[in-house]
Design a protein that fits this description.
Blueprint (H helix, E strand, L loop, with lengths): L1 H13 L3 H12 L4 H7 L6 H40 L18 H15 L3 E2 L5 E3 H4 L31 E3 L4 H11 L3 E10 L10 E11 L4 H16 L6 E8 L2 E12 L6 E2 L4 E11 L1 H6 L8 E8 H9 L12 H7 L16
Amino acid sequence: MDDLRDKYIDLIADAADEAGLEDIRVAAVGKKGEVALKMRELGKMTPEERQVAGPALNALKDEINSALTAKKAALADAALDARLRSEWLDVTLPTRPQRRGTIHPISQVTEEVTAIFAEMGFSVAEGPRIDTDWYNFDALNIPGHHPARAEMDTFYMHRADGDNRPPHVLRTHTSPVQIRSMEATGAPTRIICPGGVYRADYDQTHTPMFHQVEGLAIDRDISMANLKWVLEEFVKSYFEVDGVDLRFRASHFPFTEPSAEVDIRCSWEGGTLKVGEGDDWLEILGSGMVHPKVLEAGGIDPAEWQGFAFGMGIDRIAMLKYGVPDLRAFFDSDLRWLRHYGFAALDVPTLHGGLSR
C-alpha cells in the first residue's frame, strides 16, 4: 500500500490541469480504480487480515481524496491568477460620460407639496381627468351662465347625435376630486388633490394643460384662522424661510364663501425672488370657506360641518421657486432644459432632509 500511496501522491502533485487530475482520480479511487480493486480483495482475507488491511485501505483512500481536492483547488487558483494577469484593467483611466435622466421640476414640486401637507395630516386624493360637467361645474356652484363654462375656455368632449349622456369635459381644475372624495368618505376629511388640468389658453404664463393642487379640510369647528395657519406653514416650508407675511384680499369664487386671494410679501431684488422680506406682494393662490351648496353636493350636511379649501398652480410655484421664466418650457421636452432644471432620481423631498437641492 505504501507503493500505491507514493505512486498516486506523486501523480497528483505532477498533474498539469484538471482534466489530467480527473484521470488520476478515476485510476486511483474510481469504481474500477486500484484502491477499489484492493478493497474487493478483503473478502478473500481472514478476519484477522481484514482488521489490518481494511482500515489501511480506507486511510489510503481518504489521503488520496484529500490530495485530489487540494490539487484541484491549487489548479483553480493558478487558472484564476493567470486570467487576472491577462485581463488587467487600468483603474486610473477616466470613465466614459454617463447620460442620466432627471426628475421633471413639476414632478419634484408635486412631491414637495405632498410632503409638506402630509406632515399636517393631509392625504392625497385623485380622480379622473375627464369628468362630467356636473362634477366640474354644477356641484361646485358654478352656474350655467358662468364664463368658465363657455367652449372658448373649456374643452368639451365630442358627443354623437342622440347621445343623451351628460356632457363630459377635460377638467378645468381638480375641484371635482373634492366632490368625489366627500361622496366617498364624508366628513371629517383633510385632503389635497394634485393633478393635471386643462383650459383653452396659451401664452407665456398659460398653457392648455397645466397642474394644480387643491386642498380641502372639513370638520365641525374649522375657520379661516385654521386656513391662515395651514397656508403660512406651507409657504414657509415650501420656500424654506423662517417667516412669511400673508395678505388675504377679499375675492369671489362660486365654490367658497367668504373667498380670498392670498398674497405673500416678497422682493425682486436683482431679479431674484426673496420670500418673507421686501415691500412687494405676490399673489400665489385662492382660498376660502367651502360654500354650503358645495358641501350639499358632496353629501355633507352644512348645518353640522364646515371647512376651508384652497388651490394653487403647481407650475406657477415651481417657476417662482426655481426661477423658470416661461411656463411653456415645462412642456417642450428640451433635454438641455431638463438637464438644467431636473432633479436627481434619488433626491426625494422630505421636511427633515430638505425639500430641494
